[in-house]
Amino acid sequence: MLPLYYIVILITSLLNADINVMVLANVGSINIYIIDIVYILIMISVLFVVFKQKIYYDLQIKIFFLWMVIAIMYGMSNYGYRAIGEARYIWPLYAFFIPMVFLITGKMDDLRKFEIIINKTLLIAAIVVSILFIIELFYNGRFFLSAAKEESLRLEDFRGIRYLGSDETFTLSAYAIFILSNIIVKKRTEIKEVLTVILLIMIVIFTKNRAAPVSVCIGMLAVLLIEKKIKYLFRSVMAISVTFIMLIIIFPSITGDLFKAFSGVVQIEDDPTGYWRFVVQSSALLQGMETPIFGQGFGGYFEFYVPELDKVIEYPPHNMYIFLFLKSGLIGLSIFLVMLYTVIISSFRLKKITELDPELEKYRLFFLIIFISQIPYMMAYNYYIYFGLFVGFFYVFKILIIKQNQQDGTQKVADNRN
Fold first, then answer.
1. How many C-beta neighbours within 10 Å does residue 115 have?
2. Average pLDDT, whole number, for the chain?
3. 3-state secondary structure of 104
């Protein structure tokens, strides 16, 4: 099972921009896409965990997953099987159950096995995306296997030529955070780790994608500030600044494009894509107010009239909060926010157990930064494609730590009796 899992990570990381549009087969009028293979494996994991009746996660998470199923079923009553097709936007969240399967089957029933699997997951994803970046450098722009995708997303705008997608950029940012978490908790720096982080940050900035690096930086700075790691807060800011300057010195021709790209983060009205998002999201929000409680269900896809642009937009609103409000109403959005809050608070509270063990603390710190980074990231896109998977890994991590703690406590009692 693990080899198949790693293959899925490899394919998803490499073809994330393609697999949503590459048609694998046709069943009547229904298109079967490559990504559906991944979703089928995810659904098998869900059913396996449910029928095994293993309860390893908080009630808020169960309620959210259940409400999404209800929203899909409600959509089917209005739109038929289109509801299942549009549900592709939320299926990746159910990857939460994959680590649960590993736990139940014994593939990840101790912390050593957990470390091996999560480390390989992050490494494979980062290596594959790096290879894709190199391919796009030679291709001089975005590279897609799908002709349909290439035609619709030949990404070159006011920022100049762009590379990688937002999720791919997030993958490289996440791996940089993983290495930084190790540096922070072990309080020592190895030159190999520093060079890797610098290289990853340079690639991320060079892509000109903004949502991922800005969100990850917000998550990291927030965690370091809240947990009073002020020394590392300043070091992180300095590292990012120095890397940015190095990139400008090495590639002076892209200086203007970089400043245009990242200045738009705080000057939305002067940023073409920022303004587009704002007016589209405003129209989408107004449409959502027509069905505020339960939402319109899945299957209706998107059709927003934007008066500022005097046109109808048939793309997602590029905002996960508005998307959930549209499809599942205030109920679905509220449940999701409670779930996200629960995951973040659980990450903070776990510090009481992990802070004395750097090998464990680095994972807690990594998960916490990733979870908090989703708050700003989802204002510009859906959640990060591996967000659900990482939440699942976190809960397995939490279960294993508590289990080990209990075993250690039992052993101490036994030793005292002897």
1. 16
2. 83
3. helix
